[in-house]
Amino acid sequence: MEAIRDFFNNDLIWLTLPKVEPTDIIEIIILAFLLYHVVKWVKNTRAWTLVKGLVVIMFFWLFAVLFELNVILWIITNTISVGIIALIIVFQPELRKALEQLGRKNIVRSLITFDDYKEKSEKFSDHTLHEIIRATFELAKTKTGALIVIEEESPLHDFESTGIYLDSIVSSELLINIFEHNTPLHDGAVIIRGNRITAATCYLPLSDNMHLSKDLGTRHRAGIGISEVSDSLTIIVSEETGKVSLAKGGKLVRNIDGDYLRAKLVEAQKKTTEVKRIKLWRGRIKSEREVD
Predict the structure, then answer these.
(1) Fold of 121-272
(2) pTM higher than 0.90 for the full model?
């Protein structure tokens, strides 16, 4: 019995569970959350191919350690720091996109509100909403390709500069005329801010999401691409099928009808929402219009 007791005390002591504090649990949850989103981001970008290459390099490194291949170990050891810098440079667009998406997360906005005014007016009027829907489905009837980007919170000035400035009131006739074949402004995207068409023939970034359907053309990939780098709402009319699609948050909803488009535009309209000054939490907000 003494030998058995010594065996458990001396040889199996490493099997005992460490003392877990509440802070340890919080750290595990945070790290698991971050690791999940990093893996999810890697799988949806070119970085997934990079990870496969790194796995191959790690295999050769392990092989060199086991068989003491000093030359290979020296090469890996002396190039790893340069390789990290090179990876940051090569994948700068993906890293920037990931940080932009992190900044648009609702978890940040729900904790800290930077608006210092009480009421925000609607993004665009009901007349503008009606004109956009009318133009979209008139273009769809004639199978005229179109790409309409509606700006929300994220400014699109960088993309406006790639096109031709218009600064015109939104009307269905103007939108239809812009995308008409053989017109100077039909190629590219139209950007709408509020109740005005700010620019046409704008170039948009193409999505590099490897999970997109292979039958999607450049127009659809551009619509998804702009929705990945901003919070904009993008309407796409297919030139081949005449079907209408909607891109938001990097996701594409295909073959939508007028009711669905109207619902999404009303959601983007954001009519009269009350906002409190900078707070570290959000409680129930009482209307200031109440009279005691």
Answers:
(1) YojJ-like (1 (3.40.1700)
(2) no
